[in-house]
Amino acid sequence: MAHQNGRGRPRESRLSTKLLAVTFTEVASKGIDATTIAAVANAAGTSKQAIYRRYRTKDQLVAEAVRNRIALIIPVAPLRSSVADDLRRYLGHLAETFRKDPFAAVFRALLPYRQKPEYAAVLDSAEAEQRLALRQILIATPFESDMEIRIDMLLGFIYFRLVFADAEVSQKDIDSAIFLALGLVAPRDPLPLSGQPGT
Q1: Is 45 left (phi over 0), alpha (psi -120 to 50) or beta?
Q2: Whose CA is closest to 42, among 60, 64, 22?
Q3: End-to-end CA distance of the chain
Q4: Regarding the domain with residue range 73-190, which homologous superfamily does it belong to in the CATH classification?
Q5: What are the extents of the domains in the chain?
Q6: Residues 63-98: pLDDT tens digits?
Q7: pTM for this one?
Q8: Which of 72, 119, 139, 147 has its C-alpha lying 20 to 30 A from 30's C-alpha?
Q9: In angstroms, what CA-CA distances link 163 with 95, 99, 103, 173, 189?
Q10: Which class would CATH give 9-69?
């Protein structure tokens, strides 16, 4: 009966969604230690008890908030016309995602706690998805050789700039990283990546 009169699960689902969104924002702005169940409950307009009914610990709540936000990212599928162009699209999308959503701040907050199983699982899963996307771009191409090292170079560049250095990543930076990872010679004047040898 509760479901029919607008109460029950729909309301519970809305509250759960709000809790995860509020938690993500709290971690981005305050870090892990300063994010408290009480602050999340207050910002979400609910009680600590309502949170503890869903999550046994703050770590579980934070991990689920990050996992939920990552799941909302729309993946970029390769077009298969050019390896460099596909890399440019994927890495540009990744950098833009970090820019418009405070992922960099949240990942910075999680890194010191990576040994905790809840956070390790989230970070490992995010990396695995990103590596898979890059493998799909590089596989069965002239750049499949040393593929994992090329992926290390590209993801390492993005994460170092955005997460560790808290710096911007321009399209020119991404283009340069792609040329280096693919072993190509970057032109002196900006030219379409699709015009480079082997792409």
Answers
A1: left
A2: 22
A3: 61
A4: Tetracycline Repressor, domain 2 (1.10.357.10)
A5: 9-69, 73-190
A6: 999 999 999 888 888 999 899 999 999 999 999 998
A7: 0.82
A8: 72
A9: 11, 11, 8, 16, 30
A10: mainly alpha
